[in-house]
Design a protein that fits this description.
Length: about 400
């Protein structure tokens, strides 16, 4: 309880109390905050040790494997930077600035990972999965703004925040929690330390779009978990039945997490296909309320009259209507669209740049729960997010 209360106290102090103190900002950020994390790390080190699950000879190998996953994570960030470009780091790289960054990031890393490992290995004796999941959520939340989370809504800014910040943090904390469960705090620091050192100590950083950030930030930790789990289960074939049962349960959670991340990627449009809920009857009988239309990305040059396209408009964020004509004006392509159930074409032609994709498949009636929820709760306060 002291560890949990200490984490909550640090979160409240850094998020709400310190910003209100009438003292120098550098003192608050680079002296008081690291001191709180260092005090928590010192306190945890004074507690009785909690042994991780893996045998002693396995732990060093897991630490090396965690280090390699961290290096792989940095390599993926650099490779994606080749596509999105690079920029100068916002941090100072004078000798004093480098030392300050090391103290700031290092104290926080030590406080978090020592606390994580102690809590997980204390509670995992009875409920291993609950300990890992609980620690993952706890250490994700203390790195997020409560106000920003409560302000999430059905808009692109919220999707970008989830992709840029929440999903990568959740994935990284899940891998760190699993490493702490198997091999203790050293393995968790081996992984996270490499990634944190890259962000804090590299003078040139990739300018990643939110799509690249989501892909790299969630895919690499998942791949790391697969590698770590494969190594450990391969080394533990002769483990007692109770341990094998625990590992099977963790493997099921790992598979569930991978599927959940893939579903999230699919829903937010990171794949070439994306689901769209049909919210009105303007495309009846081809598409009806409650249907889910699968949209595929397609070059505007390949779109023909008769195709049903999803496009952005001034009135609605996303519209699904059929192309009835194609116009060329001033060297730009415009699509004249019309809902099948409407008498007249849409008032404004659609610029080719505003086309999201083309309808390729329909899943009937699976979206009625979402439609009902939107009608009951969302539509009373905000405009609809999809109009077809």
């Amino acid at each position: 309880m002291v560890i949990v209360l200490g984490l909550v106290a640090i979160y409240v102090a850094t998020s709400y109390l310190l910003p209100r103190l009438p003292i120098d900002g550098g003192l608050k950020s680079y002296v008081i905050r690291p001191a709180m994390w260092a005090a928590l790390a010192f306190f945890v080190l004074r507690l009785p040790r909690q042994q991780p699950l893996a045998r002693r000879n396995q732990r060093s190998t897991l630490c090396y494997l965690a280090l390699l996953v961290g290096v792989f994570h940095v390599a993926v960030l650099l490779i994606t930077g080749l596509f999105s470009g690079f920029g100068t780091s916002p941090y100072s790289f004078t000798p004093t600035g480098i030392l300050t960054n090391i103290v700031f990031a290092g104290s926080m890393l030590a406080g978090i990972e020592l606390s994580r490992a102690w809590l997980i290995n204390h509670f995992s004796r009875r409920h291993a999965v609950a300990a890992i999941v609980g620690a993952t959520l706890l250490f994700t939340l203390i790195n997020l703004s409560a106000g920003r989370l409560l302000g999430l809504g059905a808009n692109i800014e919220s999707v970008r925040y989830l992709g840029n910040t929440v999903f990568p943090l959740l994935a990284a904390n899940l891998l760190a929690s699993y490493l702490a469960y198997l091999a203790g705090w050293r393995a968790a620091i081996a992984y996270r330390g490499v990634v944190e050192a890259f962000w804090w100590l590299c003078p040139v950083l990739p300018n990643l779009s939110w799509v690249f950030t989501t892909l790299a930030g969630t895919a690499v930790p998942i791949i790391g978990m697969i590698l770590v789990n494969s190594f450990y289960t391969g080394e533990s074939v002769a483990a007692p039945p109770k341990v094998r049962q625990q590992e099977g349960s963790l493997g099921g959670w790992l598979a569930t997490g991978i599927v959940a991340v893939l579903i999230i990627w699919f829903a937010v449009g990171l794949f070439p296909l994306q689901p769209v809920l049909v919210g009105s009857g303007s495309m009846r009988p081809a598409l009806d309320v409650g249907d889910v239309a699968i949209i595929a990305r397609k070059s505007p040059a390949r779109i023909q009259p008769g195709d049903v396209i999803q496009f952005r408009s001034v009135e609605q964020p996303a519209v699904l209507h059929r192309v009835v004509d194609i116009e060329e004006t001033g060297g730009r392509t415009y699509f004249v669209t019309k809902g099948d159930a409407n008498e007249n074409p849409d008032r404004e032609p659609v610029l080719a740049d505003n086309v999201v994709g083309v309808h390729v498949y329909t899943v009937r009636d699976v979206g009625w729960i979402s439609v009902a929820f939107k009608e009951m709760f969302i539509n009373r306060s905000v405009p609809p997010v999809e109009e077809s």
